[in-house]
Automatic annotation (TrEMBL):
InterPro entries: CO_DH_flav_C, CO_DH_flav_C_dom_sf, Diverse_Substr_Oxidored, FAD-bd_PCMH, FAD-bd_PCMH-like_sf, FAD-bd_PCMH_sub1, FAD-bd_PCMH_sub2, Mopterin_DH_FAD-bd. The keyword Flavoprotein applies. Residues 1-169 form the FAD-binding PCMH-type domain. SUPFAM superfamilies: CO dehydrogenase flavoprotein C-terminal domain-like, FAD-binding/transporter-associated domain-like. It comes from Noviherbaspirillum aridicola. Keywords: FAD, Flavoprotein, Oxidoreductase. This is Carbon monoxide dehydrogenase.
Length: 265
């Protein structure tokens, strides 16, 4: 490692003031940033530890939405009675992230800001049509994810919470890397209370994306068979040592069908 300053603000306003320095980086759970620093892929001179900011934590119901603070840890979300009642698919997704240590340290806001191509939460925010709240504005999930490790966040902008509309039905299924538990392919299927279907895929491209062919098929018939019948083109999908683009294209409708079956239970 190398020398850096560590600041521990107690409020969002104090954190935002510290992050105005272009050499500052926010530190949430540290599951991605600390590893990047050890590999010299990131070299901030100032870390702003968000762990002591109470207003970034908490899970609450606001009308027909569930609002989760950006500092809420994966384990908090997985075990929350409020999440289990309102969006059990989201609790299940959180319970399947990494291992126990990762779940007890990693946070919702950190995962979304990092936007790893194989992360699970990006599929959830897309599949549920969530809104990402920051210290400056509210960003629709469709506008938030821009590319590999890239989001709509501006320099110094801080995620404070995520508002998840409570769906009529939803489920998430992933085919995971057995070592990291990142998604080789992950599919989140959500149907809102107006009957609109959203299908989000992670692990297959530079960042999570919505699968329009699956959405159209499931809008017409919300059944596993309708999902299985869809063919996903492999042209824009990733190939790596874990899976080819063709294999990922095959898995997407298979996992979507399983997600629909789970959502209908």
């Amino acid at each position: 490692m190398y020398g850096f300053e560590l600041h521990r603000p107690s409020s969002v306003s104090e954190a935002v003031a510290l992050l105005a320095d272009p050499d500052s980086r926010p530190l949430a759970g540290g599951q991605s940033l600390v590893a990047a620093m050890k590999l010299r892929l990131a070299a901030p001179t100032r870390l702003v530890d968000l762990g002591g900011i109470e207003e970034l934590r908490g899970i609450r119901r606001e009308g027909e939405a569930l609002v989760i603070g950006a500092g809420s840890r994966h384990a908090d979300i997985a075990q929350s009675d409020e999440v289990l009642r309102a969006i059990p698919a989201l609790a299940g997704l959180a319970a399947g992230i990494g291992d126990l240590q990762v779940r007890n340290l990693g946070t919702l806001g950190g995962a979304l800001a990092n936007n790893d191509p194989a992360a699970c939460y990006p599929a959830a925010v897309l599949g549920l049509g969530a809104a990402i709240r920051t210290d400056r504005r509210e960003i629709a999930a469709d506008d938030f994810l821009k590319g590999m490790y890239e989001t709509a966040l501006e320099p110094g902008e801080l995620i404070t919470a995520v508002s998840f509309p409570i769906p009529e039905r939803a489920a998430y299924i992933k085919f995971e890397n057995p070592a990291s538990r990142f998604a080789l392919v992950g599919v989140f299927v959500g149907r809102d209370r107006q009957g609109q279907v959203r299908v989000a895929v992670t692990g297959c491209a530079g960042c999570a994306f919505r699968a329009a062919p699956l959405e159209q098929a499931l809008q017409a018939s919300f059944t596993p068979d309708a999902a299985k019948a869809v063919r996903i083109p492999e042209d824009d999908l990733s190939s790596d040592l874990h899976a080819s683009a063709a294999y990922r294209a095959h898995l997407i409708p298979v996992l979507a069908a399983r997600a629909v079956a789970r959502a209908l239970q």
